Amino acid sequence: MEKGKGVMGSGRRWAVDFTDNSTAPSSRDIPDPPGFTRASIDQDDSALSKQKKDAEANWKSQKAWEVAQAPFKNLMMMGFMMWMAGSTVHLFSIGITFSALWQPISALQGVGKVFEPYKDSKVELLGPKLLFIALNLGGLALGVWKLNTLGLLPTHASDWVSSLPPAQEVEYSGGGIPLH
Amino acid sequence: MAAAVRFFILLLLFLSSLNPILSLYEDQVGLVDWHQQYIGKVKHAVFHTQKTGRKRVVVSTEENVVASLDLRHGEIFWRHVLGTKDAIDGIDIALGKYVITLSSGGSILRAWNLPDGQMVWESSLQGPKDSKTLLLVEKSSKVDKDNMVIVLGRGCLHGVSSVDGEILWKKEFDTQSLKIQQVIQPPGSDFIYVVGFSSSSLFEVYQINAKNGEELQHETAAFTGDFSQELSLVSSETLVALDAARSSLVTISLQSGKISFQQAYISHLVEGSSGPAVMLPSPVTGIFAVKINAVTVFIKVTGEGKLEVVDKTEHTTIISDALPFTEGQQAFALVQHEGNKIHLIMKLADNWGSDLLKETIEMDQQRGLVHKVFVNNYIRTDRSHGFRVLVVMEDHSLLLLQQGAVVWSREESLASIVDITTSELPLEKQGVSVAKVEHNLFEWLKGHWLKLKGTLMLASPEDVAAIQKIRLKSSEKSKMTRDHNGFRKLLIVLTRAGKLFALHTGDGRIVWSLLLPLLRYSENCQHPMGVNLYQWQVPHHHAMDENPSVLVVGKCGQSSDALGVLSFVDTYTGKVLRSFGLDHSVAQVVPLPSTDSTEQRLHLIIDADKHAHLYPKTPEAVGIFQSELSNIYGYSIEADNGIIKGHALKSKCVGKEADEYCFGTRELWSVVFPSESEKIIATVTRRPNEVVHTQAKVIVDQDVMYKYISRNLLFVATVAPKASGEIGSATPEESWLIVYLIDTVTGRILHRMSHHGSQGPVHAVFSENWVVYHYFNLRAHRYEMSVIEIYDQSRAENKDVWKLVLGKHNLTSPISSYSRPEVVTKSQSYFFTHSVKAMAVTLTAKGITSKQLLIGTIGDQVLALDKRFLDPRRTVNPTQAEKEEGIIPLTDSLPIIPQSYVTHALKVEGLRGIITVPAKLESTTLVFAHGVDLFFTQLAPSRTYDSLTEDFSYALLLLTIIALVAAIFVTWVLSERKDLQEKWR
């Protein structure tokens, strides 16, 4: 494998693209030769391709479910890391906590992208997507919970009153020992 | 992961190496602090010029300082500050090498080594009663002879050996009522005369053997009239006294112990003179001076007691002491004022007509009149005589005049500061020239290059010296403009002499000084004295074109009903804006929280009759005041009667008509301490300008306690009357100390606590919601410090987070003392090693920075002690959470960390007070300690967390950035090249 890759990488002088672009008629500049009808070929292979497509859809949905479940492993890993980090505020625990918060958020932002390759008219992606979102939300919750145990969330009365200025006094009094 | 752990461990190591350092390095001394040494107003001066190499003068002062000064520059060679109760009565030089001082009302005699000021011996002189004190050092021509010091003190005459201080003899006088006026030793004789009055008309003379104190002769003579007890020694056997009516002079001659009187009327001697006469000290043998009204008359005593007027002058004249001039001759100096010039006239005793010297010297108007003159002569290179004159001025300054010019001067007024306030400096005006900037840039780069060399240990010794010089002579710190951090300010200082100074906080130099005209002697105001300073006007809106001003409050005399005087002084120019005498007395000055439209602060002056007078006297001020009248209260502490009274204001004065600026008071409440068991010894309130950041204190587990923060709290300490004296004068059973926290609006006692077996003196400091006080525990035989913290229990219920989030709470709504909030207090006591002279607390601009107590120790140093050590929540074994909060395990005594002395190696001799002023930079506070010396420094109780330190190397930072940028560029180029190669393959 290594060797082959090396050969391919370094020894390439020219290349021929064998990709068949023919299925997309709009991309063609050259008209089809006379007597050649594209549709007849498709119809000929329709049974075969349908079978193939079904298999592909199956595979896609399977993969989608796998991807949807991936954050669970992450969640377990995070939980372990958090337990390791302890409950005092220092650089390590803050780093862990923020990565625990950031990962689910970035994952949630890219939900569409993650499931892009498995997009298919025949594949039902709602289920995996929901699972993915739920697991990531779980991760986020874990992060928030960690943030709270570190005391970084304003959930105590002290967090809200510690910067309150002293109340004004209505009365003013002055005096003392007579000057001498 | 591994990398993260490694990084974390490294970071921990780095953080643990960052212990808070409160002390400073040796080369940081003098960077932000300055120290000035003074001696006080000179009382006596004795010149020492026997050896030509050492030109010194030994002086004693009203601040109880003995000092030896350099006659060339006025620097202090050595100095000793005796205690405040150890007033110096006389000084002299014995044997040519000892300075003899008599102090404490003639009961302590000390000898100091003249060159270095080391104490040689000390003798304590006992006697039955207080009396006049006199110090007489035998002047003998023979050096090897044991010269005796003859001391009159506590009603007895003592003969003391000047070599070792041994009391050789002591003579008590039989007559109980004898008031000794003079002790005379005729030159070359072995006996001394002691003369005095035993009644108003009975004159007594004792002749005493100077060697052993034996009484040789005792004569008494009655005069037909009464004496005024004023006596002037004219020659060794002739005295002149004034009679009780102060209209005639009586010449008393003691021919071999026999007394004879001769009376002469002043009106006969001096034509056209009337009014009572005052004796002035006789300058030289044979001549004495009398002051009648404003006229000074010099009278010569010829043989057989005949009196002859030699001169009279209407100028204010000051006469110096006698100066042995040439063989058998005596000279003296006269100083006369004329406008802003003074005339210095030297005369010989037996030749009045001609002047040895006559000089006219221009004198600074701000120095006032000449108070004392001391003369000394020297031989010039051409063998003629020159004179040095040491002059003490009205403003306490000390000047040396020589050859018609002021050689040096010392502003000794600063040794007796009465009150201090601060003023901002002018704002920097626009338009700094480009050349100056470029020069500065070059200097800046050069300085930082040197610093960088220093940091990288590449600096040569010369470079190190240059770095130190740059740091010390930083022109930044002594600029006359406001700086961004608020380190540069003016300290406005009022001194006992009635002189106002503005000191620059950067280097301590005097920016301007002003002898306040209203605090000088005048017909209407006989004994004026400055009392207090207040910030009158602090412009914010028009800071560019308006100058701030201070209010100086003075009184005409000691009594409580003496009339007051007010002066308003511009703090930029040092000019008096307005000044006037008041028609009422000044018992209290209350600066009010409000200002008028020109930003003048409203002040209430409460007189002895409890009327309140409002200043400034403008209708606008009255309007502002009237609207707040119902919420303004006053209180007065009558320490002698043990009563604290609270007052409310009424809209009109009773018994005065048509004075709309006068307001009456009515008594609201009074707290009466039982006089048989309690005596008020100390009271303290919060500083009015203190800023508190928050009302909540977060404790373990995010719990909250609400501080009880009120400006109207008064801390009062009382002791048992028996124990109000010195420590040790009462047993622990009969002494107690009781402390109170009193609300001065309602008179409510919020807290009361007693310390049995303890006594004063009490020093206390009140800040935010806590009081710290220092006292003596008789049972433990140690000093103690206690802390009381006071919390508002009625707010403790505010714990619902949602209410707080939505702002549905009343924590910031104005509160009234009449709502009687429920309070809880916490307190704790600790032993403290030092006795304390003064105590203060650091103040910062926003009150966020943690506090430090500044303790003026008995050793005249200032110690900074973290407030964390005085926390009532300290326990012996704090829990983990408490440790995290920063609670220090409880110990029985407070630690004294040698590095936390703010004054490092210096002493602020005679320390009287410590003032703290917030800088604009939150972390920093400015500290000014004053006594006989002055000391100023900047302090950062939690270190300078909001700014880079002074020795931060900007050049290193710049270099690092440049190196990083270069590295980025180089690597970028390299990677580009590599990419290209990759692509070509």
TrEMBL record, chain A:
One of its GO terms (cellular component) is endoplasmic reticulum membrane. Residues 1-44 are annotated as: Disordered. The keyword Transmembrane applies. The keyword Ribosomal protein does not apply. The chain crosses the membrane at residues 80-105, 125-145. InterPro entries: TMEM85/Emc4. It is a multi-pass membrane protein. Pfam families: EMC4 (PF06417). It is found in: Endoplasmic reticulum membrane. Coiled coil: none annotated. Keywords: Endoplasmic reticulum, Membrane, Transmembrane, Transmembrane helix. Belongs to the EMC4 family. This is ER membrane protein complex subunit 4. It comes from Rubroshorea leprosula.
TrEMBL record, chain B:
This is ER membrane protein complex subunit 1. Keywords: Endoplasmic reticulum, Glycoprotein, Membrane, Signal, Transmembrane, Transmembrane helix. Belongs to the EMC1 family. SUPFAM superfamilies: Quinoprotein alcohol dehydrogenase-like. It comes from Rubroshorea leprosula. Component of the ER membrane protein complex (EMC). Residues 767-984 form the ER membrane protein complex subunit 1 C-terminal domain. It is found in: Endoplasmic reticulum membrane. Residues 24-412 form the EMC1 first beta-propeller domain. GO terms for cellular component: EMC complex. Its main location: endoplasmic reticulum. It is a single-pass type I membrane protein. The keyword Membrane applies. One of its GO terms (biological process) is protein folding in endoplasmic reticulum. Residues 1-23 form the signal peptide. The keyword Transmembrane helix applies. The chain crosses the membrane at residues 952-975.
